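We emphasize that the prediction below concerns an isolated chain of 505 residues; any contacts that depend on oligomerization or on bound cofactors are therefore not represented. The input was used exactly as deposited, without trimming of termini.
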Amino acid sequence: MRYFITFIICVVLVSVSSCRKDFNTTPSFGALEFSKDTVFLDTVFTNIGSATYNLKVYNRGSNAVTIPEIKLENGTNSSYRLNVDGIPGKDFKNIDILAKDSIFIFVETTIDANNVVNPLYTDKILFETGSNQQNVDLVTLVQDANFIYPGKDAISMKIDSLTLNGEPTTLKGRFLTNTELTFTNAKPTVIYGFAAVPANQTLTIEAGAKVYFHDNSGLIVDDKATLKVNGTLSEKVIFEGDRLEHSFSETAGQWGTIWMRAGSKDNEINHAIIKNGVIGVLVDSIGSTSTPTLKLQNTEIHNHSSYGILGRETNIEGNNVVVGAAGQVSLAATIGGTYNFTHSTFANYWNNGLRQLPAVLVNNFFAYTNEIGQEVIETRNLHAANFTNCIFDGNNNIEFILDKVDGGGTFNYNISNSLIKFTDNNDSYKDNAELDFTSSFYQDNIINGNVHFRNTQNSDFIIGEESDAINKAKVTSFTTDILGIDRSTNPDIGAYQHIIFEKEE
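Result of the prediction step, given as a token string:
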């Protein structure tokens, strides 16, 4: 019993000592310092929670201090939420900071745009320090939006996974209703899950519209359905993830893809920017060899974790197209089909890991494992792979490959007036007849010339005055570049006419 009582006394003593403030503090008199004087919470959509932002509060003095009160100026009605040194709330009393030390304050918000008169929602964190109050501003831009959720009518779509040879997977989504088949620029559209255009219907996306996708979301154009993206030079249509914080502005893989399923038809994308997904555009539609399943014009496709464009036995026509960084291939024109690109720039400067494949890959086959575990390779006709006035470049030695498997019937291709990066240091392709740049299938091309892009890391593929692409393109019917600059005479190779870069001082 004596030992038990002794044990209890020790526990009590330890408990008391652990709760005791074993340092002396003085009141803070306005000498706090902050990591920033304003916390910008970027842009949030109405009623959608923000990311978490942080503020650091410093006590630079040689004595520990007590802050009598930290609170939000708008009090309990504020749409901001705080966490001060691990404690959530909106009002905090007697917060201590040791000498030469600091504390973290974390800030989040969820705002209803209907309750905000000005799209900028603001508040302050007040630090009551006696006669000298200090504060840090909080600022958030709030956007109203049209939201598309899977809802109770969600359907499961069993599709090929978003790779060249993936296993089937299931995506959650639903078909758009008749009232949802036009996206305007009045409000952004935010999509959760996969939104599908039903058969015999057309989704029209008007100039200036912005479409944001949540994680694991995307757009599907079903059999016999159509997508029309009607951007203009001054009002581009934007497709990207719904994380609007600056730190996510160049993060790949935030959403799925714009996927045109087998049988979709007459799809057009004009003056659009498609960025930060898994696959920018997946065209998986066996259609006519004469009528494109997808027409791409004046469009930029950047920073996708797998492919910029993945075509599978389809028909794609592209003019003034820029396809930038992708984790695997910028343009994968696979399983045969028909591909015609003019004045397009394919520049894969992926910097988030090693990339084994080139910027542009064209092949005529697909591989799968049959029921008894054998690998089977099937071939299809490559009706056309024509590239005119195009740039193939990137941070690999080889950025253009034609990969033909014999037995697939036709394998038609023609590359003219293009700038091609191809340095085969290991002679891996010396026996590949399709990569003989001296053959009649290649005319007036430049191999390993100086492209002279302005800023590859910022996906800025405008060419400068030192580019070998200047005046080397043939005249076509596409007499303006992607920026609307005239190229009716002496055109340059690629999507952009060259400019003179400003010299850095």
